[in-house]
């Protein structure tokens, strides 16, 4: 049979250290967050929440990020008589935030020590807690026939060997999202840098090509006046042909200078048909 509030008032003074009647919650008793906690690391480097098992001062707070585990030692040392058994849970207020009790629900007969809650934050956001918060509940129930049992010694601290599997970090959706966001930012930074470099390269290439074109045009314009005097001098030589280009100034081309070879000679050669005697 479960113990009601009145029986709890009668008995808990001997069974729970630092008992206070105001913590009786109908047929249960509220247990508090104690002086030592451990929260599994998020796996994100340099995350200030990645801390080893740590002691908590009076009222000191801590957070359990979404998707992470926590070990929480109770403030109270409790005892369960040989003729009783106890049941433990997290208060609904904390369950609604996403906190789930992973570590079991009963306390053996003839148990003595603190309780160690292993909790998982299945909620969407971090759960904030602090030492002294009345976070857990305990119920007592009588056994039908008491038996003589050896005392079961409970926890006084969080055993370090429990932490090994969690110490490397627990991949949570929140942690993965944060890693994706971080990689996304790194990638977009890299793309921006590459785009900037490409723009600089484009401008540099355009400048070089422009300079080369300018230089080429300059070279061309410088080489032109050097050809002109040749033509002028050549055309200044009197052409034997009266049908040569009308004016030396009009055609400075060197082709004009070759004209004497192509134009009819002033003394016609006898080989030309026009010079042949008629009748031959
Ligand atoms: N959240 C919990 C659950 C249990 N306990 C304590 C009370 C129990 O009496 C004791 C042992 O619990 P179990 O019998 O469920 O665990 P094991 O069977 O693993 O331990 P053992 O081999 O010591 O019986 O641990 C606790 O401190 N915190």
From TrEMBL:
<dbReference type="GO" id="GO:0006229">
    <property type="term" value="P:dUTP biosynthetic process"/>
</dbReference>
<feature type="compositionally biased region" description="Pro residues">
    <location>
        <begin position="239"/>
        <end position="251"/>
    </location>
</feature>
<dbReference type="InterPro" id="IPR036157">
    <property type="entry name" value="dUTPase-like_sf"/>
</dbReference>
<dbReference type="Pfam" id="PF22769">
    <property type="entry name" value="DCD"/>
</dbReference>
<feature type="region of interest" description="Disordered">
    <location>
        <begin position="231"/>
        <end position="280"/>
    </location>
</feature>
<protein>
    <submittedName>
        <fullName>Deoxycytidine triphosphate deaminase</fullName>
    </submittedName>
</protein>
<feature type="compositionally biased region" description="Low complexity">
    <location>
        <begin position="252"/>
        <end position="262"/>
    </location>
</feature>
<keyword id="KW-0378">Hydrolase</keyword>
<dbReference type="InterPro" id="IPR033704">
    <property type="entry name" value="dUTPase_trimeric"/>
</dbReference>
<dbReference type="InterPro" id="IPR011962">
    <property type="entry name" value="dCTP_deaminase"/>
</dbReference>
<keyword id="KW-0546">Nucleotide metabolism</keyword>
<feature type="region of interest" description="Disordered">
    <location>
        <begin position="39"/>
        <end position="59"/>
    </location>
</feature>
<feature type="compositionally biased region" description="Pro residues">
    <location>
        <begin position="263"/>
        <end position="280"/>
    </location>
</feature>
<dbReference type="GO" id="GO:0008829">
    <property type="term" value="F:dCTP deaminase activity"/>
</dbReference>
């Amino acid at each position: 049979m479960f113990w009601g509030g009145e029986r709890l008032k009668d008995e808990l003074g001997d069974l729970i250290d630092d008992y206070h009647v105001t913590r009786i919650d109908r047929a249960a008793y509220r247990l508090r967050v104690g002086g030592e906690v451990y929260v599994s690391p998020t796996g994100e480097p340099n995350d200030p929440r990645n801390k080893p098992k740590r002691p908590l001062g009076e009222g000191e707070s801590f957070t359990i990020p979404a998707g992470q585990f926590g070990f929480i030692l109770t403030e109270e040392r409790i005892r369960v008589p040989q003729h009783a058994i106890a049941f433990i849970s997290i208060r609904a207020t904390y369950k609604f935030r996403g906190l789930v009790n992973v570590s079991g629900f009963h306390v053996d007969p003839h148990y003595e020590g603190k309780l160690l809650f292993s909790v998982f934050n299945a909620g969407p956001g971090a759960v904030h807690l602090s030492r002294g918060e009345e976070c857990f509940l305990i119920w007592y129930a009588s056994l039908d026939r008491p038996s003589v049992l050896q005392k079961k010694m409970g926890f006084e601290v969080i055993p370090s060997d429990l932490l090994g599997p969690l110490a490397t970090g627990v991949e949570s959706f929140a942690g993965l999202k944060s890693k994706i966001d971080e990689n996304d930012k790194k990638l977009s930074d890299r793309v921006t840098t590459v785009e900037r470099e490409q723009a600089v390269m484009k401008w540099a290439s355009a400048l070089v090509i422009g300079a080369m074109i300018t230089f080429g045009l300059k070279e061309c314009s410088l080489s032109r006046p050097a050809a002109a005097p040749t033509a002028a001098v050549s055309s200044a030589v009197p052409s034997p042909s009266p049908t040569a280009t009308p004016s030396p100034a009009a055609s400075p081309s060197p082709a004009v200078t070759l004209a004497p070879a192509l134009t009819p000679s002033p003394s016609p050669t006898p080989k030309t048909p026009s010079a042949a005697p008629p009748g031959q």
